[in-house]
Amino acid sequence: MSQSSYHHGNLREALLERAVEVLGEVGVEGLSLRGLSRDLGVSHAAPARHFSSKGELLSAIAKEGYRRMTAAALTAAEDKTSAVERLRAMGRASVQWAMRNRAFYSAIMNPDVNRYGDEGLKTSLQDYLAVVRAAFEAAQAEGWKPKHKLQALQIFGMATTIGASIIFSDYLQSDLFGELNDEKLIDEIIDLVIPPL
């Protein structure tokens, strides 16, 4: 791509898209603003107009990742009639999203991203957690696990879903378990964590 291809803010979007590709190909360690400049055919200084550091770029990717993962979870829950089924659908959709969007999920889970993330990233995470919390509250109000503390249910459910998402999205870990693109396996995991009423 040539530098002249970028105008009216298109470079920022191109940097994000290419960064996600690089994350998927070589991981966080292989990502650099200089490398993105080279890949996109722009000057080494051009990315600095949009991202002052690699950390800021990773934060932007993670924010977009949280936005997309939240949207996927909510879309999956839309047509469900019960709160428990909505919660199950959201858990399933979160793991599926991680499996299909490995680079975004890698950015979300990267400790450096979380350590250096800006307030916008914290807000994105809080928005996602609020959606999840509301789903757990609604399921419990419907009669799912009424004797358990809501916080314990949420932590257990999220820990299992996040753990499964890491395994399904990480090439090295998924290799340990064999081919992990089976959506029925995701259903079985959700059944163990959030059994239907």
Task: Look at the helices and sheets and give the structural class.
Answer: mainly alpha
Query: CATH topology of the largest domain, which one?
Result: Tetracycline Repressor, domain 2
- Provide the CATH superfamily of the largest domain: Tetracycline Repressor, domain 2
Straight-line N-to-C gap: 54 Å
Annotation, overall tally of beta strands: 0
Q: Which parts are unreliable, with pLDDT below 50 for 5 consecutive residues or more? A: 1-5
In CATH, the architecture of the largest domain is Orthogonal Bundle
How is the quaternary structure best described? single chain
- What letter string, H or E per element, gives the SSE order? HHHHHHHHHH
The description of the largest β-sheet is: none
Please tally the helical runs, counting DSSP H or I stretches of 4 or more residues: 10
Give me the Rg, rounded. 19 Å
How many separate domains make up the residues? 2
Share of β-strand residues? under 5%
CATH class categorisation of the largest domain = Mainly Alpha
Classify the helix fraction into a percent range.
Answer: over 70%
Q: What is the average per-residue confidence, as pLDDT, rounded to a whole number?
A: 87
The global form is elongated
Question: What topology emerges from the helices and strands here?
Answer:
Elements: H1 10-26, H2 33-40, H3 54-77, H4 83-100, H5 102-109, H6 111-116, H7 119-141, H8 150-169, H9 171-176, H10 183-193
Helix pairs in contact: 1-2, 1-5, 3-4, 3-5, 3-7, 4-7, 4-8, 4-10, 8-10
Summarize the structure in words.
By secondary structure, the protein is mostly helical. The protein has two domains: 1-52, Arc Repressor Mutant, subunit A, CATH 1.10.10; 59-193, Orthogonal Bundle (Tetracycline Repressor, domain 2), CATH 1.10.357.10. It has ten helices and no strands. The chain has helices spanning 10-26, 33-40, 54-77, 83-100, 102-109, 111-116, 119-141, 150-169, 171-176, 183-193. Helix 3 packs across helix 5. The longest helix has 24 residues, at 54-77. It is elongated and about 60 Å long. The N and C termini lie far apart (54 Å).
